[in-house]
Please model this.
Amino acid sequence: MTNKKVVSPINKEMADVYRSSIEKIRGNAQRYSLVDYPAHNNIGDSAIWVGEKEALTEIFGKGPDYVASHQDYRDDIEKFCKDGVVFIHGGGNFGDLWLNHHEFRLRIIKNYPYRRIVQLPQSIHFSGPEHIEKTKSVIGEHKDFHLYVRDQASFDFATKELDCPVYLAPDAAHCIRTYISETSKHKIFSLVRTDKESLIPDLYDLLSSYGPISDWKNIDEYFYKDENMLDGFFRRRIQYKFSSSKLMMRYRSRIYNRKAEEAVANGTRLLSKGKLVISDRLHAHIICCLMGKRHISIDNANGKVREYIRKWGNFGITELVDSKASLLAKIEEIQKASP
Model:
């Protein structure tokens, strides 16, 4: 059975911290833009977008005047939003691990040298000096760029390497207010990443013996693949033909929000399957916190999961592990304690 529920109260403090922090950087701005919409099937990124939308709407008393994914962006923010703050979507792509998004971020910073630009909470990871130097140069030339990060390691790196104000704030997904849940059918459900951020070799095979296992469905695909006929017609034919229409922008925003909300609902249904959830995805941890569900969080290859939980806590429902041995020991401990 599917139910709509209010998120667990353990998220209230995190949501309050996020909103109060962003409120301070707003200044006197009445208008704002939100860019780098995640037009792909990563449910964690969609959860961030939904949380950002809810928090910013509450802060400004209105939705954004301009939104764009990096695919839809046409150097056109000022057609719709001539002043105010330009917010860049948060997540875990600040650095050289996911270069398309990082290059888009630098493009926005360079394109609007006199606007206040706020990077919403990110985790930072660079594998080498080349992209660090380029990032330092672009940010150093901007006079009003503000960077939010969501873990201590990213804060320490940014304050040392980047010439801009740096702030700590939690992930925006904590600002989600409600979620869709289904009855738990399994003792253990595992959500395991299959990309370059995976830390433990053969984790998928290891956890498959404990119950159902999956990753976010079709995570590498863009949401355009299954869009309806009206959305497809709008995207391919209408939005660029009427490129300065506020009606067009409102419709784009509605599509983005609807697709993100659908993705989050799919994610909460998926994680509802297990009485205990095991995952190496950061947003499996955060969504489990939204649901108040006990879970084991496995660190990922760049330490993003570990650093986030160390900074913001385990809420009394999270067990953090970082190796095959510690994972197996924790599963055995929980199974022995369960009736």
Residues 8-175 form a domain with the Rossmann fold fold (CATH 3.40.50).
